[in-house]
Design a protein that fits this description.
Coiled-coil domain containing 24
């Protein structure tokens, strides 16, 4: 893992005599040095947040307003969720077809996978089909 303990400016201050620092700062430009320090602090903050999100270290972020119960900062967009569901459904259908060719019961095959995942992919699509059928029976479909 990377460490942001030493910024470029901290390395300069470590190796340049204190009496020379104002000259170096003037040569680089005070606004550039200030901007660099701000960017370095922000990079440290983002890196720390990234580490915590990948380690699932939610407890240490209790004071952070960006905390999300599952450890991610933003939920997936609906289009991504639908794409994931469609891909999982396609995978399950392919496995079911292969199982049929090999004489394996497809229900038995589905039991090998996490039920929440199977229900998420197949159950959601079935509920969408039910809604579409229900709306076709009502006046909603004729709008």
């Amino acid at each position: 893992p990377r460490s942001f303990q030493h910024s470029l400016w901290s390395l300069i201050t470590d190796h340049v005599p204190g009496s020379e620092l104002p000259k170096v700062c003037t040569a680089l430009g005070h606004s550039l040095v200030d901007m660099y320090k701000d960017v370095h602090i922000e990079a440290e903050m983002w890196y720390k947040m990234w580490q915590e999100s990948h380690q699932g270290n939610i407890g240490s972020r209790a004071e952070t307003p960006l905390q999300h119960p599952r450890g991610s900062f933003l939920p997936d967009p609906p289009a991504v969720k639908e794409l994931l569901r469609a891909e999982v459904k396609m995978l399950l259908q392919t496995l079911s077809e292969r199982a049929g060719k090999e004489g394996i019961d497809d229900e038995e095959l589905l039991f090998r996978y996490k039920p929440e995942t199977v229900d998420y992919a197949l159950g959601h699509l079935n509920s969408c089909q039910t809604l579409c059928i229900d709306s076709a029976d009502s006046d909603c479909g004729s709008r």
